Please model this.
Amino acid sequence: MIEVIKQLDNKIDYISLKNDVLEVVVTNFGCTILQVLVKDKHGDIQDVVLGYDTIKEYQTYDAYLGALVGRVANRIGKATFTLNDETYHLAVNNGPNNIHGGIKGFSYQIFDYEIKDEKVIFHYVSEDGEENFPGTLDFYAIYKLEDNQLVVNYKATTTKDTLINITNHSYFNLSGHPSNVDEHYLCVHADRYALVDGDGLATGQIRSIKDTPFDFSEEKQIKDLIYQEDEQLKLARGYDHPFIFNKKENQVVLYCADSGIELTVSTTLPQAQIYTANYLDGRLGKNGQAMNARDAICVETQNMPDSIHNEENPTVILRKGERYDETTSYQFRVR
Model:
């Protein structure tokens, strides 16, 4: 069942997707996921994503809670890139770099939408030159429930060669409220991760997880690794790194023993930025609860950050005549 549950004067709607086991509330402002409501092992309903009480807060703050992020997620080094021998200068909005699409990326746009075949089909046309990216990008984000999972499909075409790297930036806490995620268990099916510099920019260096605090190839409590002595953990204040997958589905599993809730993330994308919310600053979220550093974990499925500078054949380039088509699903169950 899909229902528009709140309509605001400024064309921003709340939309509920609901079945017998899962309810997800989204909005056409940034295709943001506002609530994910699931039952815990006691039968109580928990909201397992952090967020705010009002749309105004989503419009004002910079942490991208629940937002769809684009045109290019993550950081672009020095806020500039060259494509087809032309250099493009972007907004500098994160240290010396560009992050998450610029000053008014997709997270801050109002999407058109329609409800069809039990899906919410969001649509946005990003005009040629918006945030200084080339090409008019015709973009769709399709949200649907399939039993105990939320499935999100991203599609796009462009009038010129351009860059695209879409992710969702939900902050998960499977206990149902903001609290330190040290006790959560994490498994990431990856044998390599990408290094970052002091500004959080991927450097292009790839390192094995073996014998490092980045080895979540088997399920481990986050607290058992995150406090180890490691230069990369110090630079990022925790995890804020791309993990490069070594399997094609069900690549990330997050589990909270207190609630019994388990999240499995499966994606067609090659990696995910695992981020332990290191820069949450005590701001107030839902029900006036403070959200502090490490009170959640993000699983941002995407292509390689700063791919345009770090990869010989950049995976973030979308050519005219090609189609961008990627899917990520979020499956919830109780152990």
Q: What stands out?
A: The longest strand covers residues 324-334. The chain has one domain: 2-334.
